[in-house]
């Protein structure tokens, strides 16, 4: 029996944790199934193996330096550290050990598909996973009766089997959150009908590249879905990657005028221009956004 330590490098303060770490939940289940003891890392303990998982990147991470960790083997991984690191195959497909994050009891987390064919230059998914979206699991592989499901799939609708997958979600009766959004370009009358039969509180899309005109897709989705309430329809607007302020403002206003709720995301926020940060505050604070119609008014008021 081995003694295993887990370090959730993005969430060393467990009281403030916003999202559980799925790879660590799988590693915990994998080692417990082998008869190993698994616990969160404790400074004065010695371990056979310590796993450190970074999702968002070491620059955000209050994890202790590895020389403070007393373990025979220290294994680091995660998108924020080395996107090529993969879980052992036996751990990848296992039911996650939800008990290590009691705060998130009642919610299942997982991927039904992996990969995306889009190849957006700001996105790690095609490099980390694959340029093809393919089914990797059934819902029963990571849901044990929970009433809420948070899916992490990068582009579920790009999977050729996505309608069968959506049926699994419909039949589950659970509330589903597509955390990475859905690709508006791949919505059809058939998959919209299935989405409408799924319990979804809010659906969101993205319009990242202003050189691609998505307005026709947004109009078509509204017509086919019949969803009229803008609060149920979010659109992420990527800024500060390769767009101008005018292009950012154009997309914000276009989706608002189409009856969607824009949400500004800033790439490399630490180095973003002032007007981009102001744009984000104007758009994402919905009280301000709906009371101040023009960005120029808001910007002038802030000085
Ligand atoms: S569509 Fe989304 S998941 Fe796919 S490459 Fe672009 S940003 Fe990444």
Helices and strands in order:
Blueprint: E1 3-8, H1 22-33, E2 37-40, E3 47-53, E4 71-77, H2 89-92, E5 107-110, E6 113-114, H3 125-128, E7 134-135, E8 148-151, H4 162-172, E9 175-178, H5 189-197, E10 203-207, H6 215-225, E11 233-239, H7 245-257, E12 261-266, H8 274-284, H9 286-291, H10 295-302
Parallel strand pairs: 1-2, 1-3, 3-4, 5-8, 8-9, 10-11, 11-12
Antiparallel strand pairs: 6-7
The protein binds iron/sulfur cluster (SF4).
The site of iron/sulfur cluster (SF4) has 10 residues, from helix 3.
Low-confidence stretches at least 5 residues in length (pLDDT < 50)?
A: none
Give me the secondary-structure category. Answer: alpha/beta
Give the tally of β-strands: 12
The unique ligands bound to this protein are: iron/sulfur cluster
The helix/strand series, from N terminus to C terminus, equals EHEEEHEEHEEHEHEHEHEHHH
The outline comes out as globular
Query: How much is the radius of gyration in Å?
Result: 21 Å
Q: How confident is the prediction overall: mean pLDDT?
A: 92
Biggest sheet record: 4 strands, parallel
Q: In oligomeric terms, what are we looking at? A: single chain
What's the helical proportion of residues?
A: 25-40%
Q: State the separation between the terminal residues, measured CA to CA.
A: 63 Å
- Distinct helical segment count: 10
With strands numbered from the N-terminus, the spatial order across the biggest sheet is 2-1-3-4
Q: Strand portion, in percent?
A: 15-25%
């Amino acid at each position: 029996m081995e003694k295993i330590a887990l370090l959730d490098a993005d969430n060393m303060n467990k009281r403030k944790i916003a999202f559980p770490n799925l790879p660590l939940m799988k590693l915990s289940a994998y080692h417990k199934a082998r008869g190993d003891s698994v616990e969160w890392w404790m400074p004065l303990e010695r371990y056979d193996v310590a796993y450190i998982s970074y999702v968002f990147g070491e620059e955000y991470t209050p994890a202790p330096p590895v020389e403070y960790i007393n373990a025979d083997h220290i294994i680091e991984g995660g998108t924020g550290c080395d996107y090529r690191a993969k879980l052992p195959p036996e751990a990848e497909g296992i039911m996650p050990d939800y008990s290590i994050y009691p705060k998130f009891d009642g919610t299942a987390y997982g991927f039904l598909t992996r990969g995306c064919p889009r190849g957006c230059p700001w996105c790690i998914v095609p490099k980390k996973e694959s340029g093809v979206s393919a089914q990797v699991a059934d819902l029963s592989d990571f849901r044990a009766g929970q009433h809420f499901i948070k899916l992490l799939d990068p582009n579920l609708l790009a999977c050729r089997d996505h309608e069968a997958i959506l049926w699994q979600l419909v039949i589950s009766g659970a509330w589903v959150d597509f955390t990475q959004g859905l690709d508006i370009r791949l919505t059809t009358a058939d998959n919209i009908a299935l989405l409408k039969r799924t319990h979804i509180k809010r659906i969101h899309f993205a319009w990242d590249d202003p050189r691609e005109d998505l307005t026709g897709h947004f109009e078509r989705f509204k017509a086919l879905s019949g969803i009229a309430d803008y609060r149920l329809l979010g659109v992420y607007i990527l800024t500060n990657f390769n767009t101008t302020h005018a292009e950012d403002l154009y997309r914000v206003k276009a989706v608002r005028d189409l009856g969607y709720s824009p949400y500004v995301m800033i790439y490399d926020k630490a180095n973003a221009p002032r007007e981009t940060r102001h744009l984000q505050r104007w758009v994402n604070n919905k009280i301000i956004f709906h009371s101040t119609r023009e960005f120029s008014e808001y910007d002038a008021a802030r000085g």
